Each structure stands twice: as structure tokens, then as C-alpha cells.
Amino acid sequence: MTGTSERWRLIVTPPRSGAYNMALDHAILEEVSAGNAPPTLRLYAWDPPCLSLGQAQPAADVDMARLQARGWDVVRRPTGGRAILHTDEITYSVALPADHPLVAGDIVTSYRRLSAALLRALQQLGLGAQADKRADRLPERAKGPVCFEVPSDYEITANGCKLIGSAQMRRANGVLQHGSLPLTGDITRICDTLAFPDEAVREKARVRVRQRATTLEAVLGRAVTWDEAADALKTAFASTFALHIGPPEPPTSAEAARAEALRREIYAAETWTLRL
Q1: With CB atoms 3.0 to 4.6 Å apart as the test, which of 75, 180, 190, 222 could cross-link to 85 if both were Cys?
Q2: Could you tell me the CA-to-CA distances from 144 to 66, 150, 154, 187, 248 in Å, in that order?
Q3: pLDDT tens per residue, range 206-250
Q4: Domains in the chain, please, with CATH?
Q5: DSSP calls for 151-210
Q6: Hey, which residues are catalytic here?
Q7: Where residue 164 falls among pLDDT bands split at 50, 70, 90?
């Protein structure tokens, strides 16, 4: 638990491109790390739909022709993990100073702490979910390019299927964690734009993803709006960690300017997206 009077900032942004979303998360982390902004919870969406790659994932995992035919974007995250299709979802990010108690210790330990708020949000929405410590890792040969195919340490599952995928970046003075909660839709759509040797292998991947991942609507049996999910996440972070989180604020002018520079120079550039 953090102090009962700790203030966090809430930023809620309208749907934007993948490059902008990653650039703004990065810019917010820089300002929080420098002590120019308080700990920040950001909630956002994506337009157009975007395939994001982990920072060390090969770009060859993507079938660019199929991606472009659907009008979807691709971006490389500054965090690790594997591919996620961002559409019909809510995304959260948390930017904290490196010495904040919620991110003390290693990445897995901080995942466990932060997952408590994610679980509470889902419980507020009526879902019984859990954060899994994955002792039953799949062998490396069974791991594919899809993030939601395999839960990681303390990621959120419901009915045995992965529901929230998160990733983390640690800098000298700050920590960024962001994650994706699919609200509705076909969880296997991601397979339409990944590279497979033939359609039979693609279909097998769809079957695996369908067995191992899910959406909030699928497990709740009802549709949850983006605004409803956002309100649950804000309330859950505040109550779980005894925080004061006020009304949404826009990014500062410094963050907006830095985000545009990062978008242009890094996240929208092929030298970053296709670097591996």
C-alpha cells in the first residue's frame, strides 16, 4: 500500500495511432522520471487497429501485405513481449519513479503488486479473475508470436484463459508498465496478419489462441463499454493503493511536444519498427 494522501495524475486520451500511443507513454515516463510530473495512470485506445510488436520481436513475424490490406498499423513497443492486436480494447499505462514502492524489487514482484488493481477492476465489473504465477511454462518450441497465447508471471486470467497482457520498461529513474484488456471481438483476428508458412498452420494458431485467450465480453456474457472499463480501472487503482486520482488531465505541453518528436523520430520510423 502507498500513502493515503498520494496523488496520481489521470490522463485519458482519445483513440490515436499506435506510433503516437507509444510515443506518449514514453514521453510521460520521461517527465515522471525527471520529477516533473506525478505518478501517472493513462487510459487510451487505438485508431486504426494496430499490431504492436515487443521491442525484441522479429518484424518477420508480421505479414505486412495482409496487414496493409486490412488498413491496420504496426508499431514496435518500447517494452518486451510478443505481438498484440490493439482493437476493441482498453489499454492502461502506469508511469512511476524508479524508487516508488509499487515497483520495488524485480519485474515479477512489481507485476504482482500492480495486478491487484487490475483484478479489483475486473471484480468491480462482475468478473472472478486471478493473477497467475506461471510455474507451468510452455516449452520454448510451443511459443508463438502472439502475446495472448501464453500468460506470463502474474498476468490476469479468467476461466484459464489470458485476459490482460502487460509489459514493463525500466529506466534508471522510472518504470513504465502498460497492458491491454480486450473488451470484445474475435480474439483470433491477430492471426490474420502474422506470417505463417501456410493456411493450415495459421488455422492451428487460431485454435491455440482461442483456447488460451479471451475477451471481457466472452467471460462476462455481456458487453462492457470503454467508459465503463475506464471508470473501473481508475476506481480500482485509487482504492487498491489508497490514492487520490482526480479528474482526467491532458498531457502537459512538454509531454505533447516530446511525444510528437518521439512519434516522428522513433515510433513511426521503419528504422525502429523494422529494426529486427
Answers
A1: 190
A2: 18, 9, 20, 15, 37
A3: 999 999 999 999 999 999 999 999 999 999 999 999 999 999 999
A4: 7-273 (3.30.930.10)
A5: --TTEEEETTEEEEEEEEEE-SSEEEEEEEEE-SS-GGGGGGGB--SSHHHHHHHHHHHH
A6: 147
A7: very high
